[in-house]
């Protein structure tokens, strides 16, 4: 970071002006460094939702929403998605560069050989109600991992941080598949280390002990791509939560559980589930015939209806991940012969109408990654309530890379936002008999 310019903040209430340094990163908006502001002026800044606040310095992921650009450690997502697999992407996010062949083999070996979880963990799963939401199970069970892996919890030790990162990446597929198996009452499937990361996960999800499970390479690649596209997305709500939880020195398993809890919300990881629910509703109302009515409703501001899976807070251009997911979506539907499935046909028609309709074109409302990833996951046979779990599985590497970056900073501080207090001023307690 370089610092050449300054901003001067002046006040109309007589407080002397404050000079604030402006830092320049390698890309993206400059930042005004307000760390000295309170000491110099006795004032805080006010920015609920962090709309204008950079809460950290990071070298991991860069997004340019206007250009529709997403870079992991400088590499465009489009290039990573076609040239690398998920584990190479994990290595990149964690280590800062892509692995060479020897590094790739070593990393793959470490992850794929640590996929089993402690056998006692199965009792945690069994403690949940049969109909528990898989995300509820995941939040609880990932947090519980910290009770099993004490030997890697010294967060000041880089080797411990690395071991915890590998454990989390390696065991998440097992945990997610167990959450699913528990919900459908099938036996847990032990991992198979000779399969790829995605292939092993598919087998643990869809295989049973009764017969051999054959991994379909087209579907395996599709799942791997979903994982790559969701691996990190800089300082979103769940990642910021992981950083804030980690800033107190909490262990990484607990921090990732906090991230999973945040991801669960419909405004974050729940969007693709919401998209599938919307498609189901249109289908119930009459399907393709009724798309016109539905779109008219979406355009009517008083209806409160939104076209789920369209638009993005950051991308005001085609989300680069959506382009890649669209490609995968067509590939998967073709492979499974689902092009004419009514729900998929409906989704494709909706995509076509929305891409041509003036309302969406004018507002730059493109289909987002969730629109396509929901369709792909449904085609893969993943039930909608599992979608956010898959997202959590993919994002675990991003969370742990961001957490590790923060803990590795020499002057890392506990996160402690301030507030604008608007409650009651000091008053005296009146004894209950006189109230
Ligand atoms: C993601 C989202 C919250 C971003 O919202 P935002 O940044 O507030 O979008 P903007 O305010 O820039 O929207 C601009 C205009 O498009 C409209 N708009 C945005 N998304 C829309 C959608 N999905 N359907 C219909 N209209 C939409 C807004 O009403 C606004 O219209 P106006 O200018 O006439 O008032 C929003 O697009 C949305 O709710 N999408 C559906 C949910 C979804 O898919 N979320 C996953 C995101 S990965």
UniProtKB/TrEMBL annotation:
Cross-referenced SUPFAM superfamilies: Citrate synthase
CDD domains in the record: EcCS_like
Keyword field contains Acyltransferase: yes
Highest taxon above the source species: Bacteria
Alphabetized UniProt keyword annotations: Acyltransferase, Transferase, Tricarboxylic acid cycle
GO biological process, one term: tricarboxylic acid cycle
Active-site residue list: 312, 370
InterPro entries associated with the record: Citrate_synth-like_lrg_a-sub, Citrate_synth-like_sm_a-sub, Citrate_synthase, Citrate_synthase_AS, Citrate_synthase_bac-typ, Citrate_synthase_sf, Citrate_synthase_typ-I
Reaction equations catalysed: oxaloacetate + acetyl-CoA + H2O = citrate + CoA + H(+)
Pathway(s) of this molecule: Carbohydrate metabolism; tricarboxylic acid cycle; isocitrate from oxaloacetate: step 1/2
Molecular functions per Gene Ontology: citrate synthase activity
GO cellular component, one term: cytoplasm
Family under the similarity heading: Belongs to the citrate synthase family.
Protein name: Citrate synthase
Organism lineage string: Bacteria, Pseudomonadati, Pseudomonadota, Betaproteobacteria, Burkholderiales
């Amino acid at each position: 970071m370089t610092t050449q310019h300054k901003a001067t903040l002046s006040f109309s209430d007589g407080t002397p002006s404050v000079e604030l340094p402006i830092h320049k990163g390698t890309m993206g908006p400059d930042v005004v460094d307000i760390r000295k502001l309170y000491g110099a002026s006795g004032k805080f800044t006010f920015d609920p939702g962090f709309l204008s606040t950079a809460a950290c310095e990071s070298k991991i992921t860069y997004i340019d929403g206007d250009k529709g650009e997403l870079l992991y450690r400088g590499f465009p997502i489009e290039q990573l998605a076609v040239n690398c697999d998920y584990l190479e992407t994990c290595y990149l996010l964690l280590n800062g560069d892509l692995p060479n062949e020897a590094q790739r083999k070593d990393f793959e070996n470490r992850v794929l050989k640590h996929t089993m979880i402690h056998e006692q963990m199965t009792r945690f799963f069994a403690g949940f109600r049969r109909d528990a939401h898989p995300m509820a199970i995941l939040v609880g069970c990932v947090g519980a991992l910290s009770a099993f892996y004490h030997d890697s919890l010294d967060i000041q030790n880089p080797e411990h941080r690395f071991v915890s990162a590998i454990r989390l990446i390696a065991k998440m597929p097992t945990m997610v598949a167990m959450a699913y198996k528990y919900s459908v009452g099938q036996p847990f499937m032990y991992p198979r280390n000779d399969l790829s990361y995605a292939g092993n996960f598919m087998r643990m999800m869809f295989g049973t002990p009764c017969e051999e499970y054959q991994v379909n390479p087209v579907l395996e690649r599709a799942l791997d791509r979903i994982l790559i596209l969701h691996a990190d997305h800089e300082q979103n709500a769940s990642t910021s939560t992981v950083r804030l939880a980690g800033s107190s020195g909490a262990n990484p398993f607990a921090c990732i559980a906090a991230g999973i809890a945040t991801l669960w919300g419909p405004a974050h990881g729940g969007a693709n589930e919401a998209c599938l629910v919307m498609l189901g509703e249109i289908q119930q109302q009459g399907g393709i015939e009724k798309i016109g009515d539905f779109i008219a409703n979406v355009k009517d501001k008083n209806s409160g209806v939104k076209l789920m899976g369209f638009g993005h807070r950051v991308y005001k251009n085609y989300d680069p991940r959506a382009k890649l997911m669209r490609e995968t979506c067509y590939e998967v539907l073709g492979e499974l012969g689902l092009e004419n499935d009514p729900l998929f046909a409906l989704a494709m028609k909706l995509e076509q109408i929305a891409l041509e309709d003036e309302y969406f074109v004018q507002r730059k409302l493109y289909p987002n990654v969730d629109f396509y990833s929901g369709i792909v996951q449904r085609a893969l046979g993943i039930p909608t309530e599992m979608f956010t779990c898959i997202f959590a599985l993919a994002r675990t590497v991003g969370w742990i890379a961001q957490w590790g970056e923060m803990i590795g900073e020499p002057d890392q501080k506990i996160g402690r936002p301030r507030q604008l207090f608007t409650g009651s001023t000091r008053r005296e307690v009146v004894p209950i008999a006189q109230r």
